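just leaving the lab so this will be short. what follows is a protein written twice so to speak, once as letters and once as structure tokens for the fold. can you read through it and tell me how you think this chain folds. thanks a lot i owe you, the record is right below.

___
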Amino acid sequence: MAHTKAQKAVSGNRDSRSKRLGIKVYGGQSVKPGYVIVRQRGSKFNAGQGTLLSRDYTIIALKEGIVKFVQKRGEKYVYVS
């Protein structure tokens, strides 16, 4: 007699696809308008000067320049200057 009845024991043994979150452009690197800098869940990083925080909390460059990560009063900001 089979121990797994009609493969029901392993039917829930699947994992979701990874969402490819994280920092895409690091500090000191150059960006152009529209480049994705950070993909995140929630606002771990806040949008600073020259960046935009989109609906899904992705930080996008608004202008051409150099990326800078700054921490002010315990908050992390991303700037493009």
Observations:
- The chain has a mean pLDDT of 91.
